Amino acid sequence: MYEFNYHRPGSVDEAVGLISEDAKILAGGQSLLPTMKLRLAQPSDMIDLAGIPGLSDISVDGSTVTIGATATHASVAASSAVAGAIPALAKLASGIGDAQVRNMGTMGGSVANADPAADYPAALVGLGATVHTNSRTVAADDFFTGIFETDLAENEIVTKVSFPVPQAAAYVKFANPASRYAIVGVFVAKTADGVRVAVTGAGGSVFRASDMEAALNGNFSASSLDGIAVASDDLNSDLHASADYRAHLVSVMAKRAVQAAGG
Amino acid sequence: MTSETGVGASVKRKEDKRFLTGKGRYLDDINRPGQAYGAFLRSPHAFAKIKSIDTAAASAAPGVVAIYTGADVAADGVGGLICGWAITSKDGEPHKAPAHPAIAVDTVRHVGDQVAFVIADTLAQAKDAAELIEVDYEEMTPVVDGAAAVAAGAPQVHDDVPGNLCYDWELGDQAAVDAAFASAAHVTTLDIYNNRLVPNAMEPRAAIGDYDSGNDEILLYTTSQNPHVARLVLSAFVGIAPEHKLRVIAPDVGGGFGSKIFIYAEETICAWAAKKLDRAVKWTAERSESFLSDAHGRDHHTTAELAMDANGKFLGLRVNTIANMGAYLSTFATSVPSYLYATLLAGQYTTPAIYANVKAVFTNTAPVDAYRGAGRPEATYVVERIVERAARDLGISPVELRKRNFIAPDAYPYETPVIMTYDSGNYPLNLDTALKLIDYDGFAARRAESESRGKKRGIGLSSFIEACGIAPSAAVGSLGAGVGLWESAQVRFNPTGGVTVFTGSHSHGQGHETTFAQLISEHLGVPIENVEVSHGDTGKVPFGMGTYGSRSLAVGGSAIMRAVDKIVEKGKKVAAHLMEASAEDIEHANGVFKVAGTDKQVTMAEVAFAAYVPHNYPPDLEPGMDETAFYDPTNFTFPAGTHIAEVEVDPDTGAVEVVDWAASDDFGNVINPMIVEGQIHGGVAQGIGQALLENAVYDPDTGQLLSGSYMDYTMPRADDLPSFKIETTNTPCPGNPLGVKGCGEAGAIAAPAALMNAITDAIGVEIDMPATREKVWRAAQSAQQAAE
Lengths: 263, 788
Prior knowledge:
The complex is a heterodimer of chains A (263) and B (788).
Chain A: E1 5-7, H1 12-18, E2 23-26, H2 32-37, E3 45-48, E4 58-61, E5 64-68, H3 73-78, H4 80-85, H5 87-94, H6 99-104, H7 107-113, H8 120-127, E6 130-133, E7 137-139, H9 140-143, E8 144-146, E9 149-150, E10 158-164, E11 168-175, E12 182-191, E13 194-200, E14 207-208, H10 210-218, H11 243-260
Parallel strand pairs in A: 1-3, 2-3
Antiparallel strand pairs in A: 4-5, 5-10, 6-7, 6-10, 8-9, 11-12, 12-13, 13-14
Chain B: H1 16-20, E1 36-42, E2 48-54, H2 56-59, E3 64-69, H3 70-75, E4 107-108, E5 114-120, H4 123-132, E6 134-139, H5 146-149, E7 165-172, H6 174-182, E8 186-194, E9 206-212, E10 217-222, H7 227-236, E11 246-249, H8 265-277, E12 281-284, H9 287-293, E13 300-308, E14 314-326, E15 353-362, H10 376-394, H11 398-405, E16 414-415, E17 421-422, H12 427-437, H13 443-452, E18 456-465, H14 473-478, E19 487-493, E20 499-503, H15 512-524, E21 531-534, H16 552-578, E22 586-589, E23 592-595, E24 601-603, H17 604-612, E25 626-631, E26 640-650, E27 655-666, H18 673-693, E28 724-729, H19 746-763, H20 773-787
Parallel strand pairs in B: 1-12, 10-11, 14-15, 20-21, 27-28
Antiparallel strand pairs in B: 1-5, 2-4, 2-6, 3-5, 7-15, 8-13, 9-10, 9-12, 13-14, 16-17, 18-26, 19-20, 19-25, 22-23, 23-24, 26-27
Helix pairs in contact in B: 10-19, 15-16, 16-17, 18-19
């Protein structure tokens, strides 16, 4: 690890004020710190959000679940309020990485990092969530723009994410056996505005499977997805899964998610 | 069992209190006064010429003590790393042993090859400075696959090794095998790849070199399975220091699996640099370095053919193997795909004619050497997969085919056509025991139940054999070994009755401190808490050969028994004197000396006290109770058994669940059943890891290690494994005083074939290891389509 300046601001405004060209914002550090230890990242400054009061709050109010940026995966997984409102979200959080990652990793860190194989982006897009930053709100559909890319501006920090409570939802993941990231993860939600199917791990960024959504809007059952597959052209291909296999897995995981969501 | 702490008792491990409370003393826990820290600059390229190295900026960086390149090491007369087993090719030529400098001189031959060593006051300074070294490389096209390396026109890894061929070796009677095939009613053939593995010991390799200028003595702490062998090699071949001026300490070592047998560049350089600087130098591998620089395991391409008569009786076996040695020869690399491999190709069967040809080849990859089982897993994998395929080809049940060909329980000693003489065993008993454990007869019903849930169920056998406790020294010497393979032991009583056992073997997870103490408790009646086992320090223990090849109990334990015999012999004389009897009339059992036919007795503790306070003592007897013994076995030992795997495959994803596992193993006598069980668990876990998950993958174009971290290299985890059903059978080994055979590698040897055979049974298609989900899914799809 290279040397850097460490900051522990007491408010979001103070944190935003510390942002500079080579600064990095530290939430749970589960992606950033390993990269730094391998000397693959060399931030000049680290702005640690851990000292900001209220940033890890989790609240459920009627039709919305709101999770603070520094809420850990473990706290989301353990929240009875979350489990009561959107059990699929609590279950997703309980399956991220391993226990150490879940105890340190955060909602805001995962969302801002936008790893193409992370689990949370599927929940955000699958549920039609809203990302709140220090300066605005962004719909999840518009937030994830590419491989490790988001719509966040330089001086923007994710503060919380709000999830509308769906009628039914489920997330099914086919995990990388080594890293336990998603090779393919599919989040299916039945919402007031129709069915949403979000796929993570398979492509460069989370995406919605619109053909599947259309079929499920007609009939919310796994058999509706028979014969429907995503195109493999733009899907990832690596040591663990070819693009073809990923395309096949999207269909399999989508069916299993629909079944798990009661379809 | 004579007591709760004697032979046969599942005594809780004495060492575990220390380990479980964080009080173990691993290498990185050790620090020497004033020590500096070293970091290696490693090659980013698989194959390149070093045109120049500029260390000027790095040398001027803060805290830098010294920077050494290959030229500095060579200029100081430090020898290269050696391979200690000579193999003779079939044309009579010795194996090719190209130069293996501890730091590369003009060429780097694999990603991670050492280019420079930076020593600084802190580790961060050493790493910072290493980044300032400018190396001008001229990249060359690498070759990483063993089969590709022997193809015409392949890149030449070493200028002095034409065709990358280290050796072209053979074993067995080729004419007899040809005749067997000519008369065969059926021939089954098999083409398989035994995947390359990264050892992944929990503790990475590390070293501290320290120097006592007053005594001109180098002290080397290193993560070694055999500190005396390290001392011998570093003295006699590398030339670091004479043996009496080099002390090697291997403290608590966190796993080895073979990878810490070898004498590597890093500890060599730390020992050398410490003397050069008159300052302690510490290096600890980062996990990424372990992936790149630990000696890997396996990596065999094999074609095998099995000739049978009309009844499925094996007539002949022909095996051709290409073994990937990596870029350089590691310490015992040559022996692994030759004498530790082809000699086991008879398996448990009466195959009368066997011929093996092995081509060992250089590639631009990390060196390959012994890894848990070392050659024997590769042999079992070939034999047990071709037997399974033969059964399928002939339509005979795999159980029946094995039974028709097993060596009979009354056939020992049994000489195989590949120079081994099996000493004991009962193969049908192990097979039957395993069948019962897994309820083989109930499999059809379980398969039907799986099918009702859309799953494919399979069952697979592996009747493995291994040769452990490599010996005797004269025999292995005649096969090319550069060392003897005996073991030493010293049993030292203290005046107050406690015992320290010094052993030349080395525990890095095996539990010697408990098992060896049980031997003393059993045979000398010393309470186990009064027995200390000392190992791993060449300054303390007699010269010993270390721990590998499941040899510690069979060879090291036998040496302890020899020392115990000497203690008893001397004790009888002391006891006789104390009881005013004749030594011939003294009977000894469990630490009590009795005058035969009387009720007079003295205890071992009393005898030991008398030996150290010899006020009333035989006038012609030396005082003291401290005996040393060296033991050279008469033969290998031959643990064997049958493992059965049961799997359920999800045809939609290719995911394989190992749902059940039965293991029936014959390890001869068992000293501590709990430790044996633990060894089986660990070995099977590693075998399942190889078959399902683990794979060291090099990019064929760039030579980069693609699975070079735990993000991509998949280790087996608890949730990948079933609960194991284990039984041990026992045909005592006739070749050593303990009747033991060794259990450390059995699981890793047996498991891969059992699991792959089960997967074949489930999906109806054979695939290579690792049986990744995509591979299984594709195979299941193709089988499905073929059936439709």
